[in-house]
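Quick one:
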Amino acid sequence: CSSILLDVFDPERLVQCPYNKHHQIRARRFPYHLVKCRKSYPRVAKELTTCPFNARHLVPQADLRDHISNCHDKRFIEEDIVSESSDFQRRQMNPVSTWQAPPCDEDWDTESREQLTSPFVLGMANDGLKRKHRDHSVTAWSLHFVAMWVYGTSCRAVMRNAV
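Output:
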């Protein structure tokens, strides 16, 4: 059974640390422990190599070739590769879409130049070089909502406190 599956089915399983044989770590905490021990044991870390199929497998560099040929997690990677290649072949057999993007009517460069020549000013209409004052009549409802947003209370309460 694969070590990945064992960790999923039994996260409380004890795993031996490759840096210090006296460390017995719960499977669910093992990746975090590896990072911590790598910093604590730099000399041992230089001698160990990570398995290409499972980052939790740290083996001596001299034993890596043997580990790769016998690694249980290698099967999962090989199955993924086979699955991906068959998916790729299926996609190649399907007809290619003829969809094309519709033409774009927007010109962001022109819009940005226009905005540079006439900056936005609150209460001013942006009509090229001509600027005229907009009609901003204030309604009771708009004051009410602004007071609710700014003060967290109604306009009447704000006016009572101001008097």
